[in-house]
Amino acid sequence: MQQVPQSGDLKQLPGAGCPPIGLYPDRAGQWEGTTLGWGLPSPLSTRLLRLDHFLISIPTAVCGSDSTPEGLVGPKGDTGETGVTGVEGPRGFPGTPGRKGEPGESAYVHRSAFSVGLESRITVPNVPIRFTKIFYNLQNHYDGTTGKFHCNIPGLYYFSYHITVYLKDVKVSLYKKDKAMLFTYDQYQEKNVDQASGSVLLHLEVGDQVWLQVYGDGDSYGIYADNVNDSTFTGFLLYHDTN
């Protein structure tokens, strides 16, 4: 059985003592002795407690200061409120340069356009109409000797024509590679000058040809032009093929 230290064996240290606990606060304090019955070296602090009517001496940590021994860890507390946003820090150093991007589309602009007109009336059907009045033909993709546009850049093209009708009815077609793609008919009204027109989008490959011609077996070739009346044929590339 553990021994209870006697007053002759223990003496209270001077200075600040440990806070009283237990049922005998007047006997709890800070003590110094030689051997307290546990085989432990001194100095030790000893707390005197009464349990089931027995007086038991319990060694604890040395009270070298005014602090008391730590108790059991309590439950985790609630999350506190968010603090005030701090002051913005200094600007960081530049990052590492990224990878080189993929090559972009060529900056070269593909151009193909023409605009031409008649210089006299047409009297021959079923052959390409030769527009010899040149308004624009910088790329020379229109051939004034044949009346045909030659595709040099594959892509989508816009074609239009505006015809002055006089003296005869007009039947005109726009051809692509020997195939009529668009038809226009206008009936002549006696003593009147009339107008006929048409337009279309066509996809062309390199080497394709486009032209206008009068169609039919009759005398429907009333396409007219003079110094105050024009009949025109126009075409240009909208955008080229990318593959």
UniProtKB/TrEMBL annotation:
The gene is ADIPOQ. Residues 67-104 are annotated as: Disordered. SUPFAM superfamilies: TNF-like. The keyword Secreted applies. It comes from the Eukaryota. PANTHER family: ADIPONECTIN, EMILIN ELASTIN MICROFIBRIL INTERFACE-LOCATED PROTEIN ELASTIN MICROFIBRIL INTERFACER. Residues 107-243 form the C1q domain. GO terms for cellular component: collagen trimer; extracellular region. The keyword Secreted applies. It comes from Canis lupus familiaris. Keywords: Collagen, Secreted. It holds the Pfam family C1q. This is Adiponectin, C1Q and collagen domain containing.
